[in-house]
Amino acid sequence: MSLQHPIVAIVGATGAVGAELIASLESRAFPLERLRLFASERSAGRRLLFRGEGIPVEQLNEDSFPGTDIALFSAGSVVSRRFAPMAVRQGAVVVDNSSAFRMEPAVPLVVPEVNPEAIARHIGVIANPNCVAIVAVVPLWPLHRHIPIRRVVAATYQAASGAGAAAMEELRASTAAYLQGAAYQHRVLAHPYAFNLFSHDTRVDPATGYNEEETKVMRELRKIMAAPDLRIGVTCVRVPVLRAHSIALTVEFERPIAPEQAREVLADASGVRIVDDVAGNHFPMPIEASGQNDVLVGRIRRDVSDPSGCSLAMFVAGDQLLKGAALNAVQIAERLISG
Amino acid sequence: MSLQHPIVAIVGATGAVGAELIASLESRAFPLERLRLFASERSAGRRLLFRGEGIPVEQLNEDSFPGTDIALFSAGSVVSRRFAPMAVRQGAVVVDNSSAFRMEPAVPLVVPEVNPEAIARHIGVIANPNCVAIVAVVPLWPLHRHIPIRRVVAATYQAASGAGAAAMEELRASTAAYLQGAAYQHRVLAHPYAFNLFSHDTRVDPATGYNEEETKVMRELRKIMAAPDLRIGVTCVRVPVLRAHSIALTVEFERPIAPEQAREVLADASGVRIVDDVAGNHFPMPIEASGQNDVLVGRIRRDVSDPSGCSLAMFVAGDQLLKGAALNAVQIAERLISG
Which domain holds residue B220? Predict the structure, then answer.
């Protein structure tokens, strides 16, 4: 691989995350020599703008990757399982946004603010974590380094973008229909979305009662933080918001911790912006997190349900498409080329 | 008071809860002799339909209550503080939906499924609890009777209706403007609401970090359940949903409890409907809770962050305007006349 000026490919270039991958590579002036864009047959032939140039979208096939140094995959687990091994055999390093390889012991699962050292251990694939796991871990990690975290209870407020561009459009279209009193047949998500919310519509394991999203978040947080004994309980809920995920976090530490202490730690943490204006009643909101690289953190307070003083409550919001997906992948790629 | 055929007054008849009070009195065939409707000067003179008859809205004043047996107040704390004592002195029993008197030791705070016996202790005013407290306590109470609850961690997903009819209209109008790419200046709520969510916009106590809504929910749950030592931590969030509140609950009991046990208890509980279809991925949703008297409960599972087996997680949704406000008040009034 040319570390200085790699040839970069995006697989799933026409999706919601694909668009943000292109935008992040451009806005961060990623030093690539050439950008290649891949998608399914349906989108092949379109051109997408990158640095003022229309780049053709190519149909992904079994011989797409020779010459590619870094392949950013964001086309779902099925595509990743099939094509990522080919990309690796053809010489690329894959940064995979799907869940296909995240829990494989040999695959680093990386949030650069947390475990950048894991990147060096890759054997071809580096996994980009689940978006909720990323948004949660960015503020949890510096706190965990300050005082180890024992337990996390989380309830999510997840945006449409997590289910892709079609789900965002379904939220817009179904809401417009609702406001006009018109019928709307939902196609992308399992439930009506206009002014509604619902438990994350991934399969629920009848044995545990947890859905796949919740299971991902819990497993991946432990792996990213290298904290196999961390106790985590998550409820994942889809809310009618377009593109940033919010999370209500209750966090139990090994020792008592004051909100002021947490605020000091978070003020120095990278990737975090404190939005905690008590007088102005201004706290993290998805519309303000949208388009931002940082995860917003506020409502930092003692959890009054834990009299030991070891627990804090807080509320976070992060752009699902940026830090929750595309930005994190590009940050991994930046670390790859910087060494 | 004529217990059999009371004269009933609604104060705040033109609000969102007022409309549901009228509808609940009608749908439940409340045996009233006469219904009187009060509102501010602005609304006086309008007529509202009750049992096919247009009832004039009268301007509330200091001499409105002679002859009234039961006054259902839902016009905010300021109106309740001023006029409820007058109503009591003029011979009415007040069922007050505001927070004005809820925490006064002499005032019963009643959810009929939980503490109907408290009604008999009233000295003129019976308080109707905060809507989140009601929606939470209906399923928590039968569980607490089965095995005492030690701790509750809750994150809410609160609808526009909790801030009144104008907030519901702001959600509709601001969302319509957003979809048309038009500007919208929010007036009712503190933050933009279209496809957004925000920490409940009541005042945050700088000493504790909790807002007034959260403080109400925590205090009122303890009072309704007569459980002064119950540990509760709540995060209250306003989501872009029209009229039902949802809550993610993590509940710690004094002894281990299996999800099946909780499901059995809840199946027999009044005011609760279990919606927990794991195979069909169908759980409580605000659009299905809207217009329903029951609180919907689902996602009942072990909280995997508590290895003791003493904790469960669940997700509930209840109509804020019905069980969270008007229906509960009418149910209290029904108990008043029946016994």
Answer: 133-320
- Per-residue pLDDT of B53-63, as tens digits, reads 999 999 999 99
Active site residue B131: yes
| Confidence at residue A118, expressed as pLDDT on a 0 to 100 scale | 98
Q: Catalytic site residue A245?
A: yes
The answer to whether residue A140 is domain-embedded is: yes
Same structural domain, A25 and A161: no
Q: Does A125 share its domain with A186?
A: no
The CA distances from residue B282 to A205, A250, B163, in Å, are 13, 26, 28
Q: What is the pLDDT of residues B195-237, one digit of tens each?
A: 999 999 999 999 999 999 999 999 999 999 999 999 999 999 9
> Which of B122, B144, B146, B245 is labelled catalytic?
B245
Cβ–Cβ of A240/B302 closer than 8 Å? no
Is residue B108 one of the residues assigned to a domain?
A: yes
**pLDDT of B4:** 80
Residue in B with minimal Cα distance to A202: B281
Same domain assignment for residues B190 and B313: yes
The predicted complex's ipTM stands at: 0.96
Helix/strand/coil for B264: helix
Element (H, E) at A96: strand A93-96
Residues B138, B254 within the same domain: yes
Give the one of A192, A250, A285 whose C-beta lies nearest to B191's C-beta: A285
Chain B residues touching A232 at Cβ < 8 A: 304-305
Is B177 found in the same domain as B148? yes
Q: What is the mean pLDDT of chain A?
A: 97
Instruction: Report yes or no on B2 lying in a domain.
Output: no
Distance in Å, alpha carbon of B85 to nearest chain A alpha carbon: 33
Going from the C-alpha of B1 to that of each of A268, B5, B68, B128, the distances in angstroms are 65, 9, 8, 20
List, for chain B, all residue ranges whose pLDDT scores fall below the cut of 50: none
Backbone angles phi, psi at A219, to 5 degrees: -65, -45
Domain count, chain B: 2
Q: Determine the pLDDT at residue B2.
A: 53
**B191 occurs within a structural domain:** yes
* Pick from A155, A204, A241: CB nearest B197: A241
The whole-angstrom distance between A127's CA and the closest CA on chain B is: 25
Task: Name the 3-class secondary structure at A329.
Answer: helix
